Structure formats: structure tokens, C-alpha cells
Amino acid sequence: MVAISLHSVVPVRAEAREGAEQNTQMLFGELCTVLEEQPRWTHIRLDSDGQEGWVDAKMICPMKAEEYETHKKALETAAMVAMPMAYAVSENNGQTIPLTAGTCLTKYQDGRFEVLGVGFRIDPSMVITQALEMNQENLLKAVRFFLNVPYLWGGKNAMGMDCSGFTQVIMSLFGKHLLRNASQQATQGTPVASLQEAKAGDLVFFDHEDGKISHVGIVIDPERVIHCSGRVKVEKLDETGIYNIEQGGYSHHLVSIVSL
User: Fold this and answer.
1) Domain extents for the chain?
2) Taking a C-beta distance cutoff of 8 angstroms, is the pair 241, 219 a contact?
3) Which fold has domain 2-69?
4) What is 189-222 written as a DSSP string?
5) pTM across the whole model
6) pLDDT in tens, 119-144
């Protein structure tokens, strides 16, 4: 069985219970494969990055095979919400739904998109119709509205993000499809030999003195990184790691750099 999310954000949890750890989130219009069903909970695998977890069964909508294939094909050329939050209005019932950055808008044209035959209207200024070109200017424009978004484990929306959720959403605006967790993202792309060779948009990976990758950020230039730790912020970066001025020391230690 396959299904779609028709909610703004759906928590995807590690276990089939309300208080379980949130692994990630499923955004509006995302597809998944159903792996197991219980009376209230459904075990799924997201099409977008392969992440698995449990969702409240009423928060996803089962699809027919032909509906799934049609929507999956439409996602290949979908527009995307580029601002932290936008609002779409259903042409079916006039209800408003908030949509977060990285949400794909299928069959988009001139402020209108369509999902499963239902049309929606959205402010065109909130939308990009093609991937942004990666350079420092575009990166700074893309991230400026995300500054101070609070940290939330498993989050990837404007009300809360974790470090890899932040990089996954931002890099999707540039046409880069990342896996969900920092350690997985570190396996993608091409290694960069040193920080001085890094360029805007490269990913930098860190540990907490244990050698295991547990954090990721995005290079702005060889001396600055934007990342989500407590909140989305820009901090000093060098070959040792991220220097936190408030703490007067290094909060994260550099492990590797990857160019996508």
C-alpha cells in the first residue's frame, strides 16, 4: 500500500505511540510506502529519503496505484515553497493550509497547484519553480529567513528543525536531495580536502569528541558556517570546528567536508 500526507506536517516516530521519539517529519504532498498497519498506527517508509517510522494512521491518506504513480511523476517537475512558511487556499472548500519550506507543489502554474485533483492557490512570491543556482549570494538569500528557527529533534519545518533537517530543507531549494541524518548525509557528494578549499554550499560535519558524526552545517565561506544548534545561527568556523563566542570555546569539532 502507498499513501500521501495531506497535512502541513506529520510527525514520524520511532515507535507506535504518541510519546515516542520523533525521527523526522512528513510534509504536505509527500509520498510513502506502508510497511505495517496497526489499529491506530502505521509503519511507513518515506519515498523522499527512505526514512522509516510510525505515523498516526489518520494523518496519511491511502492512494490507488495510478494516483500514486501520477503524483510521483508530477513531483519530478514540482515547484517548491522557498520561504519558511506560506499559506495555500483550497479551491474545493476555501480552507487555508500552512505549508513549510521544502514542500513540493505539483502541477504549479501562476500561483496555482494541484494535488489529487484538488486545486490550491498560493502567493507566487513564496514559490520557486526551479532549483536555485548554488553560490554564496543565493545561499545567503535562501537562509536569511530561517535564522533563529528553534532546534527540534526530528523537525524540518519553520517551527522547529534539527541540524540535518535544516540542511535537507535548504539544500532541496538548490536541487540537492539529501538523506535524513547527518551521518547519512556525510556519505553523499565528494570529499573536500580542507576548509580553505571549501565553498559556499558545501556541508561540514562534526562530532562531540567521540569521533562519530553527530552534527552538520552549511559552509557560507571558509570562516563561517550556518547550522541549527539550539537555533539556526551563523558562527565562526575553522579547522578545529565551530567556535561559540557565547561559550568561549568550540561547541563542535570538525570531522569532514563534502561538496554536493
Assistant:
1) 2-69, 77-128, 136-259
2) no
3) SH3 type barrels. (2.30.30)
4) SEE-S-GGG--TT-EEEEESSSSS--EEEEEEET
5) 0.96
6) 999 999 999 999 999 999 999 999 99
